[in-house]
Amino acid sequence: MGTFSKSIIKVAKGAMDAFGTFPAAIASALAFSIVTAIRIHLDWPQQEEFNFLFNCLHWAFGFGALFGIAAVTYVRTRKNSVKDFTIANLFTAAVITVIFILLYFFGGRELLPDDNFRFMRLTDISIGRMTALSFAVAVAFVIFAGLPRKNPNMTRSIFMTQKAFITAAIYGGVMMGGTSAVAGTIQALLYNDMSYKVYQYLGTIVGFLTFTIFAGYFPDFSKAEEDKKRKSAQSQSRFMEVLFSYIMVPIALSLTVVLLLWTVRTVMEGIGSSFVRLSSIATSYAVGGIWLHIMVAEHNNGLAKFYRRVYPVAALLILGFEAWALVVQLGRFGMKTTEYFFLITWVVAVVSVLLIILQKERAYIKISILTALAALIAVLPLAGYHTLPARLQSQRLEKLLIRANMLQAGAIVPGSESIDKELREQITDSVSFLAYQYDAELPDWFDRDLANYRDFKDTFGFEQAWPQYDEYISPSEYVSTFLTLEPVAIDVSGYDWAFNLLDFSRKGEGAAELSGRNGAYLVEWILNETNSSVPRLRISLDDKIILDEVMQSYVDRISEKYPPTAYQPRTVGLEDMSERFYSDNIEVLVVFNTAEINLDAKNDSITYWLSLNSIYLKEK
Predict the structure, then answer these.
(1) 120/56 Cα distance (integer angstroms)
(2) Rounded Cα distance, 165 and 184, in Å
(3) How far lies 361's CA from each of 294, 366, 457, in Å?
(4) How high does pLDDT run on average in the chain?
(5) 119 near 49, Cβ under 8 Å?
(6) CA 478, 484, 488 angle in degrees (round to 5)?
(7) Are 32 and 58 in contact (CB under 8 A)?
(8) Residue 474 in this model has a pLDDT that exceeds 50
(9) CA-CA distance, 310 to 548, in Å (whole number)?
């Protein structure tokens, strides 16, 4: 029997053994698959009413599958008795029940007036808490699975878990591709009316089998010493060593150099970068760098040793300047969700790097526990991402309104356009953030409808003023004009016909036809492939073109009145959102919903997007 065949049989045997090794976890995964199949069977109109129930079941069973593996691993590595094994599986069933009850009775959100759904749904914080709990359980499993038991080797345990996941994903991908190909062939050659749901059912079955492969990949955790299967699961092949040490380490070192150069530039010129972009890069560097440090902990080549020495020191320096960027951002816009997660990540990264410097490989287990604790703290009632930023931002908005003399006796008093522009921008930014914090308690004087531009203007006395967030984009390089039609009644008493055309229609696509007093009309709204040119309105009468107008005159008019600047949406009246055209046969009024002109000076390109409201036509 060849090596490949032995590998297939080994994986299949492990998947079968998983039913006996992790019975509660496999049962939970099977229940998850059954719920999925039921959702596939029900079409959306029928499923919508039960969507909340299905989501609660999915989260409960999904968490149960992960918790069941962790619970059994704990008793296998610590006590390893039939009684404890039974208790672990029964406890998993109890946890699934409790999770479902908590989600179903306390995890939903009632409908709000502006919601676009009809039935209760899970709150974002409920989903966030389930995600954090699942992550914490996964970290616990990695710790339980490691040897020696009192001080687990986290490098080997994490790699083993990653290897199990990737192996299962590869087998699952092959199974899904193969079964889909067979189903597609049947549909093409034998049964053309086969439902698309067949592929979804296949995906559900393959997903369940993939989970059994993942669970069955792990060694016998009851053994206190490394056996052949554990050594195979934990060992890094030559391919992985090359990938980590000779490909990923140089990439990480290169990124370190770039970030160190950024710190020098920051000292000389200031921050000068978008905080959103900086936070994403910093998060990736911190998380990825620590992970890579763990992966190469046992590599003895020069690059890996150099990286293990350099990364912690360089990371501390870089994280120090990233803290400066955070302080600057908080001073400008206050605490919001992005800043909150950046702060959490920064604290975890700094403590982790210090632990690595002081304790080397012994720090990895503490870093894992710290990361799990940070995830759980981020979803706590008072300190979580859903409450703390909103509470701090509410306090900031209150101070801004008092500074503008617009908050009196617990109520907002309208201001005016004469208020300092920076203050108007800060108020707009704060209001736009708070209006969508559905899981947070907001002040009594704050109305979520304030995010609406009309309610905003009526309440605050001035139009929304948006700050320029991305400083790394020079205003001279990328500017735009963005206009939106305000709610308005249009007098169409002098017109005979109204046309509703697709924004993306080209000649022969979505053109409107009608039979009028003078003959048969064809109305076309023509765009090019890239929106780089101004749209064209073409009207034909009895196959003869009687009006062919490019919207250039309209674009020139609004560009002159509203010159392209840094992104600043404006709501304007009908006069600025319409254009009239005349010919010997007809009179036409074109009304737009939005008008957008984007200028990229760096690449010397202009793009246009004119979204139609309607076209009105009068025959002469």
Answers:
(1) 11
(2) 28
(3) 8, 10, 58
(4) 87
(5) yes
(6) 165
(7) yes
(8) no
(9) 67
Residue 487: C-alpha distances to residues 26, 270, 453, 592 (Å): 56, 43, 11, 12
Within 10 angstroms of residue 427's Cβ, the number of other Cβ atoms is 25
Burial class (CB in 10 A: 0-12, 13-18, 19+), 3: exposed
Contact of 70 with 144, CB cutoff 8 Å? yes
- Nearest alpha carbon to residue 616 among 589, 591, 585: 589
**Is residue 139 classed exposed, middle or buried when 0-12, 13-18 and 19+ CB atoms within 10 A define those classes?**
buried
Across the range 59-73, mean pLDDT stands at 97
pLDDT at residue 156 is higher than 90: yes
Query: Is the per-residue pLDDT at 67 higher than 90?
Result: yes
Can you tell me the mean pLDDT for 427-455?
A: 83
How many Cα atoms are found within 13 Å in the side-chain-facing hemisphere of 584?
Answer: 5
CA–CA distance, 26 with 61 (Å, rounded to integer): 10
In DSSP notation, 297-349 reads TT--SHHHHHHHHHHHHHHHHHHHHHHHHHHHHHHHH---HHHHHHHHHHHHH
Residue 571 and residue 453 in contact, taking contact as beta carbons nearer than 8 Å = yes
Q: Quick check: helix, strand or coil at residue 114?
A: coil
Q: Is the peptide bond before 475 cis (omega within 30 degrees of 0)?
A: no
Contact yes or no for 410/357 (Cβ under 8 A): no
Confidence bin at 478 (pLDDT 50/70/90): low
CA distances 201 to 7, 33, 133, 180, Å, are 27, 9, 29, 10
- Rg of the chain on CA atoms, in Å: 31
317-356 per-position pLDDT tens digit: 988 888 888 888 888 889 999 899 999 999 999 999 999 9
**Residue showing tokens 């765009």:** 527
Q: Are 591 and 613 in contact (CB under 8 A)?
A: yes
The pTM of the full predicted model, rounded to 2 decimals, is 0.79
Beta carbons within 10 angstroms of residue 414's beta carbon: 11
| Tokens matching residue 226 | 């490394």
Residue 225, classed as helix, strand or coil, is: coil
With tokens 């593996």, the residue in question is 69
More confident call, 433 vs 137: 137
If one compares 129 and 223, the residue with the highest pLDDT of the two is 129
DSSP state letters, 44-70: HHHHGGGHHHHHHHHHHHHHHHHHHHH
CB of 376 closer than 8 Å to CB of 136: yes
Q: For residue 247, give the DSSP letter.
A: I
Q: CA 601 to CA 595: how far, in whole Å?
A: 19
Alpha-helix residue ranges (DSSP H) falling in 107-190: 124-145, 154-189
Helix crossing, 124-145 with 154-189: angle to 10°? 120
Q: Nearest to residue 125, comparing CAs of 98, 141, 102?
A: 102
Kindly tell me if the per-residue pLDDT of 215 is higher than 70. Answer: yes
